[in-house]
TrEMBL record:
It comes from Streptomyces subrutilus. This is 2-amino-3-carboxymuconate-6-semialdehyde decarboxylase. One of its GO terms (biological process) is secondary metabolic process. Keywords: Decarboxylase, Hydrolase, Lyase, Metal-binding, Zinc. GO terms for molecular function: aminocarboxymuconate-semialdehyde decarboxylase activity; hydrolase activity; metal ion binding.
Amino acid sequence: MTVVDTHAHVFPEITRAESLRLTGSEEGPWLRVSDGPGAGMMMAGAREYRPVRRTLWDPAERVADLDRLGVDVQVLSSTPLMFGYSLPTERAVDWCDTVNSRMLDYSSHAPDRLAPLCQVPLQDTEAACATVSGAMRQGFRGVHIGNHLGDRDLDHGALLEFLAHCAEQDAAVLVHPWDLPSGPRFSRYMLAWLAGMAAETHLTILTLILSGAFEKLPASLRLLFAHGGGSFPYLLGRADNAWHRRDLVRADSPRPPSSYTGRFSVDSAVFDPGALRLLVDVMGAEQVMLGSDHPFPLGEEEIGRLVRESGLTPAEKEAVLGGNAVRFFGLNHPVKEAVR
């Protein structure tokens, strides 16, 4: 059985000077690496954002982790702090090119084990499409994007154009919540992560469904939502009930929300056997893939343990642990060009 973790992050070694030169912002993201054993800090300008361990920027440490945890392949995405969506387009293109180049360098340490996703200047559709096209030629397996762009969700015309282009380029799309709700109600106990992330993902999935976006997008588009699809799978009955009872809800969607679960996938990062069972029941085992959020503290420490020790059938476990991801990311096919 091939085990594939589809949700794992990298923060390449980018210094503050590089970040300032590329982004033009004193608040740009960079990585502060200490002289101690494995300690680092994600930075936003002078502000400490999150303490991190060496696996995040050292591919040898990453592969050692995968060996210890019994993971064959990890699909790697940059840390959402690095998206750069607020930058002017020219700077955003240079920033994404740099991050993507570092992602390729990182993955080249073990190209059969580390499968990179690119990031794009999503604020400019033409530039984002060009970046995806170039990245797929370089050996990326797809693209990692945030779930919205300011007030525009993924049903916005420009973002739909980008998603359609991804389908044309055979680029899988990992959608990750970012730019989380803020304010006093979210400032304590990591509530922005614990509640805000789930709400953001739920909002984006429902928006794609109820806006009729899935009727416009190619059926070949491969979408994967992080964190088990947020709260969507657990409140799907509420959405279906509303669609049947209120014309305002179904105005642009010809079918109830539950009929669209085959149009996207979700990862398994739900951390509870009952939640995993419900997730598979709602989405179907073929739409769920192992995802850990490695190597962050809120991720699954023993990658795949939840799935392995769950009450899923052997066939369901095999699909979730790797079979689905191998097909979704084309891992059984060589990359178009060798990763440099």
